[in-house]
Amino acid sequence: MPLTPEQIAEIEAQRANPRPTLRAVSEGMEAHLYKAHEVLDHGFIRVIDYMGDDAAICQAARVSYGKGTKSVQNDEGLIRYLMRHWHSTPFEMCEIKLHVKLPVFVARQWIRHRTANVNEYSARYSILDREFYIPAPDQLAAQSVVNNQGRGVALEGEEAVRVLEILKSDSNRAYDNYEAMISDEGQAGLARELARMNLPMNIYTQWYWKVDLHNLFHFLRLRADSHAQYEIRVYADAICKVVADWVPAAYGAFEDYRMGGANLSGKAMDCIRRMLKGEEVTQENSGMSAGEWREFQAELEG
């Protein structure tokens, strides 16, 4: 179960006690407050708090007060200009705080984005729940033959069944031993901070993660990409839906220029100019390595 009964009760209590505010609010984001969006088999993301909206980005860019006489169309044009020219500071005026429940191995990838404030559930003080990420059968795949850090074709038949059984049995056996070590019935019991070392990487942890919009966009550009690992990508996809409701103009510009755009090298631009002139360009006369040329071709073909 993604949310515990205690967490559900806390959310319901908060939802039942709304308060008026004088600060700017995003109606799209307000709809996400106190809602948990389920991810994977036991995980979720939920918005705890946020600051700012599309207007706050424009306000910071203009160094003005209030909305003034600028139209929505002007605001959207300004946001697209800022995104197009990599002016990041105005986007830092917006922040979001998320409560995330995720497998430990996903958290280890996630924490590499060192531009956020994080407070994680502590297994030194508390006992972790018996909840493990077990992949769906269609996510069990062999090692990729072209990417050393990716997966290839899906496992099938008896091999897939065998792998799933190993994952389930190893997870439960490790947790059984964890419980046995920390138990104080008839023994002193091992300290929780030591017993946790025996738990597998697919056990779930939780944290609060607070980040500004500029750095969130950087996270999403990498982790919502089709090449990102599936288990972190589904979290990024869930966050994308929230951000699209929170700051629709900014997210639209991000989707267009960052997710839908391409970052081309000088050699790639030179090849495009030559192609437009009718010149035949090949990998051999492009000045690119085989890998660069393959990626360049993929961008051109979409």
From TrEMBL:
Biological process (GO), any one: dTTP biosynthetic process
Which PROSITE patterns does the entry mention? THYX
Keyword Ubl conjugation tagged = no
The positions annotated for binding FAD are 89, 112-114, 120, 212-214, 218
Catalytic activity reported: dUMP + (6R)-5,10-methylene-5,6,7,8-tetrahydrofolate + NADPH + H(+) = dTMP + (6S)-5,6,7,8-tetrahydrofolate + NADP(+)
**Alphabetized Gene3D superfamilies for the sequence:** 3.30.1360.170
UniProt subunit comment: Homotetramer.
This one is known as Flavin-dependent thymidylate synthase
Organism whose genome encodes this protein = Profundibacter amoris
Gene this protein is translated from: thyX
